[in-house]
Specification:
Elements lengths: L2 E8 L6 H12 L17 E3 L1 H8 L7 E3 L6 H6 L2 E5 L5 E2 L11 H12 L5 E8 L1
Parallel strand pairs: 1-4
Antiparallel strand pairs: 1-6, 2-6, 3-6, 4-5
């Protein structure tokens, strides 16, 4: 089994993370394994959202939800170890190099460009499992 971090970018307010979590889950479902359509391409089998992560780690949900504008610095973004981003319109973004990791300079540049288009949104960290 393997896991990786993904940011899901959604419109929302920092003081209402539960609503943002629901929206983020809806954006991720099309990329999740569906046993009714086993041959469909998918990126993960199951996920943990910010609330799940907080419950498992005794963190607060706010430890896994940020304003996008707070993470535009490549160093801040790299510290989150994110390997994919899903934007509000449902687009999946990942490193162009299949072997590229969360701290690859090309990925950091691409991620910064993607996130820069959604400065006023929230970014929610999810753990996706394969």
């Amino acid at each position: 089994m393997s896991r990786y971090y993904t940011l899901v970018v959604v419109p929302g307010e920092p003081d209402a993370p539960e609503e943002a979590c629901e929206t983020a889950a809806e954006l991720l479902y099309p990329y999740m394994y569906d046993p009714d359509r086993p041959t469909r391409t998918h990126y993960f089998d199951y996920m943990y959202g910010p609330k799940d992560i907080a419950d498992l780690t005794d963190d607060d949900i706010s430890d896994h939800v940020w304003l996008v504008s707070e993470m535009l610095d490549p160093g801040t973004f790299a510290g989150l170890e994110v390997e994919a981003i899903v934007t509000p319109e449902g687009s999946w973004h990942e490193p162009d190099d299949p072997g590229g990791l969360w701290d690859d300079p090309a990925w950091l540049k691409k991620a910064s460009q993607v996130l820069g288009q959604h400065r006023e949104c929230l970014a929610l960290r999810h753990v996706l499992h394969i």
